[in-house]
Amino acid sequence: MSKLNVALLGAGIFATEGKYTASIAHPHVPAILKASSTISLVAIYSRSPSSVEKLVSSDALSSLSQDARDNIKQYSGDNGLQELLKRDDIHAVVVALPISKQPEIILQCLKAGKHVLSEKPIGKDLKTAHELINQYEKDFAPKGLVWRVAENFAHEPGILRASEIIANGSGPLGPVLFYDLKMVIHVASGKKYHATEWRNVPDYQGGFLLDGCVHAAAALRVVAADAKPSQVVAFKSLNRTHVGPHDTIVAIASNPSLTTSPHGPEFPQPTIAPQGIGKSMPTGTITFSFANPRTPDFRPPSLTVTCVNGVVRLEGGKDWTVKVETEDEAVQKSVGAAASAQGQAFPSSGVEEEVAQFARAVLKQGDKVNRAEPRAALWDLALLEGCLTSDGNLVDLTKLV
Fold first, then answer.
1. pLDDT in tens, 296-352
2. Helix segments in 307-373, DSSP class H
3. Which of 19, 141, 197, 384 has minimal Cβ neighbours within 10 Å of its Cβ?
4. pTM to 2 decimals?
């Protein structure tokens, strides 16, 4: 197989948005079309025939010739999905359906022998996610079927650059010892995401917090890497009643196994120094917020990591900007452009990257690092569920994954 024939399941906002920023859309159609050297879009499915027809005739497919559009088969309803999955010429599916519906659809696709790229989060709760992963690893992975979870933040070049700079807490900036997590989701009343029925009346924990802030969890997973937190204490609340059941998480997380080495010049200290000779306590914070919107729908996400030798600021949007603030000349030299006044800019291309990497994995042209592996997405869900269920009590994240 030299080219992947793909069916898109879902014709809503996630699938069709033609122009996007890092925080407000998952444009699968443009990403699939951009990967035309390895992917052909041959079918589209939705629960309603009108939404499929609307997509096929929309500007999202304007780059295709009329013949190419005519060759995209349209399916809808339960019978339509079964008919689509019977096609031997469809090798893979991209699933962009409501959160609670996705697990059963993922299993149907795997049972039909299709490779699957499914939208985040991996499931509505950890119980569902564990069952799904266990069945995949037992019944379908041995058959060579590829399943990846589409999380564009895990593939954003800007976030990957920030991860390089943090370097598991062992880079020139020094370690990160704790995580101050503030996740505040803002969805303007009546705007396109709020007006989506399944989001407006969610049948899953956290509502928009789960749907939107799982991005923050994924970014934290990638940026912190091996130094990501293993325990969390959190409180949840609702401040804007139209986005219930909750819209705010305030939490502190830590990794009790993370230790520091001496830093700075040697100087005489009492041997009874509470942290040991030369081991003062550096601090670190990771903060995300979707509050105070700069756009009609969402505020572009931001991340701040404070280490002993400087601060890393990551700002999302149409582009991502990574900026390191430090007076340490060695750090400035190490991070290069990121230490400049304007920082280092990276175009937002996470959706394109995740789709292209999925195609390469199926075609056995895979990358060395897989950031869309289902068990990686499981950690993202574990952090969110841990925060939503903590109510001020310590949650051991290692026991959830």
1. 444 567 788 877 788 898 888 778 999 999 888 988 999 999 999 999 999 989 999
2. 329-335, 350-362
3. 197
4. 0.87
Dihedrals phi, psi of 290, to nearest 5 degrees: -115, 20
Provide the 3-class DSSP secondary structure of residue 130: helix
| Both structure tokens of 141 | 């992975």
Q: What does CATH list as the number for 154-350+382-390?
A: 3.30.360.10
Considering just the CA atoms, what is the radius of gyration of the chain in Å?
22
The kind and range of the H/E element at 235 are: strand 231-237
Superfamily of domain 4-151+353-369: NAD(P)-binding Rossmann-like Domain (3.40.50.720)
How far is the CA of 176 from the CAs of 162, 227, 302, 336, in angstroms?
13, 8, 17, 21
User: 3-state class of 388 per DSSP?
Assistant: helix
pLDDT digits 0-9 by tens, 71-87:
999 999 889 999 999 99
Per-domain residue ranges for the chain?
4-151+353-369, 154-350+382-390
Task: For residue 288, give both structure tokens.
Answer: 């995300």
Query: Across the chain, which distance is largest between two alpha carbons, in Å?
Result: 80
CA 385 to centroid of chain Cα atoms: 15
